[in-house]
Amino acid sequence: MKKLSLYGICFSMLAVTACKKKSTPSVPEPPKQVTLRSIKLNNIDFTGTLYGVNLQPVIRLQFSQPLRQSTIAQSVKLFTSGGAEAAITTTLQSNDSVLLVQTNSPLLSIATYQFIILEGLKSATGGNFIGSVDNAFITQIDSSRKFPAISDDELLTKVQQQTFKYFWDFGHPVCGLARERNTSGDLVTSGGSGFGAMAIVTGINRNFITRAQGLQRMQIMVGFLKNTAQKFHGAFPHWLNGITGKAIAFSAKDDGADIVETSLLMMGLLTARQYFNGVGVAETNLRNDITALYNAVEWSWFRKNNELQLYWHWSPNFAWDMNLQIRGWNECLITYVLAASSATHGIPKTVYDNGWARNGAAGFVNGNQYYNITLPLGSAYGGPLFFSHYSFLGINPNGLSDAYANYEVQTRNHSRINYQYCVSNPLGNFGYSDSVWGLTASDIPNGYTASSPTNDVSVIAPTAAISSLPYTPVESMKALKFFYYVLGDKLFKEYGFVDAFSLKQTWFANSFLAIDQGPIIVMIENHRSGLLWNLFTSCPEVKDGMRLLGFSAPYL
Question: How is residue 389 annotated by DSSP?
């Protein structure tokens, strides 16, 4: 037994020794690189920009390998468009190959967020993340009401009163004229000041100011235009210095007369002349001064050597170099109407027919349908909405027609087409709807453009829909309410609605422009009472001029 035991012990030792000789050292597993297999935001593929995302979204990432948890916090980030980091919580699932990302608190509404994976994310075995993630999403609109509910009538008054402040509180302290925009300093605008004169009349009518206050401001404005402002053949430049009255060049060769801006100015002044109809010395003198300014404009000079059309600009330094013919359809109908109405420097009907109307040629006459809506005049889809606003702040389109169109149909259908385009939203711009519509000239991110259905850059201008109230009252009122109640914390500021916004680009202007604020207050009033229409078309010379051009309307 002893021998067997010793033999067994020896055999066991030999076996262990043999096993040790045959085994190999253990080798660590090589690091495995990790790739992204899928990424979803709220169960939707998150491979491009997503819009209308809720304020506490969940992002789910499926990876090819388990992740090393210690590398996640420094690598997975959510940033605002301004670069601020949003607080998030990350959770690993499915053997650490699925990562859930959630926000710690609700995000801001209508805001852009960037979800990024930075360098440093590793697999559980230490392999690098191969690929890149830099995806954006836009959060949803906060539909809560930003201001207490008031009646529609009260809302219209509030919008008018707030917008009126642009022309009253922010009117130039020396000359009283309207600044081009809220950052213009001493630069004032002639056309915008015409809108401002109509705003002052509206302000008196709505008891925002007294008649005496309005008269005093109009005396300052007209006195400056009469005695200080630089004029060229009776016409005013686009821009003026509000202290010296000297012309400020609008562009390189646009340093002289602008007959279109002059016509917008004169429309406002003639409207004010008709309003201040008192027999007292002050109102009588104001009327006489306005009439003298209007009669001094050499409208016929802008035919450039008696051509059968008007030209927009004339410069003492560059003469007719700009060579811009005033041809329709656009915002310049008022220019031909006032030129034909002048008793001192008038134009014949042939200038209107050959120049403005192009004798009914294509480009002026349209007649096509867009969204089953016939457009009598203009380019495809009607162009920017200010075409149907500026001239018609004073000219009443209701029942108005001439050889070329019914202008009640033209202005209404232009607005309806613009509305239908935004509702159908062929470019898929986030936020467009039957409550968010209106394309016209306005500020845009880093610039300015004339937005329209054929030049849609996702920017909505409140003036577009609101100033169309006389044409599309239901659609425009719906937009106005949405702008005020839902977007009001971002849109409704010290001078009314800001100039423009883009929900797609999460951009809201901080600017106000005279030529956009003016139509809001004036066209709301025309919708409510017809005040400015009635005043302007009561001008005897305007009646004569419109009849001369072949217009017919109940008020003519």
Answer: T
SS (H, E, C) 533-545: HHHHCCCHHHHHH
**Cβ(310)–Cβ(320) below 8 Å:** no
* Averaged pLDDT score across all residues of the chain: 95
pLDDT at 463 over 60: yes
Q: Are 441 and 460 in contact (CB under 8 A)?
A: no
Which pLDDT band holds residue 25 (cuts at 50, 70, 90)?
A: low
Give the model confidence (pLDDT) of 112-166 as tens digits: 999 999 999 999 999 999 999 999 999 999 999 999 999 999 999 999 999 999 9
Mapping DSSP to helix (H, G, I), strand (E, B) and coil, where does residue 224 land? helix
- The crossing angle, in degrees rounded to 10, of helices 211-227 and 190-205 is 160
443 phi-psi bin (left φ>0, alpha ψ -120 to 50, beta other): beta
Q: Is 378 exposed, middle or buried (0-12, 13-18, 19+ CB in 10 A)?
A: buried
Distances (CA, A) of 35 to 246, 257, 394: 66, 66, 66
Instruction: Classify each residue of 393-404 as buried b or exposed e, where b means 16 or more C-beta atoms within 10 Å of its C-beta.
Output: bbbbbbebbbeb
Written as six digits, the tokens of 308 are: 């059968």
Q: What is the CA angle 176-177-178, rounded to 5?
A: 125
What are the Cα distances from residue 287, in Å, to 68, 290, 363?
83, 5, 39
Give the pairing of strands 88-93 and 313-314: unpaired
Q: For residues 383 and 474, what is the distance between their CA atoms, to the nearest angstrom? A: 21
What the block records as the tokens of 271 is 């409207």
Q: Are 327 and 352 in contact (CB under 8 A)?
A: no
- Residues 547, 534: Cα–Cα separation, whole Å: 16
pLDDT digits (tens, 9 = 90+) for 502-525: 999 999 999 999 999 999 999 999
Q: How would DSSP label each residue in 443-466?
A: EETTEEEE-BTTB--S-B-HHHHH
CA 461/CA 471 separation, integer angstroms: 17
Tokens, residue 344: 């001192």
pTM of the predicted model, to two decimals? 0.92
Task: State the number of CA atoms in the 13 A half-sphere of 14 facing the CB.
Answer: 6
Separation CA 406–CA 157 (nearest Å): 31
CA distance 391 to 330: 9
| pLDDT over 70 at 339, yes or no | yes
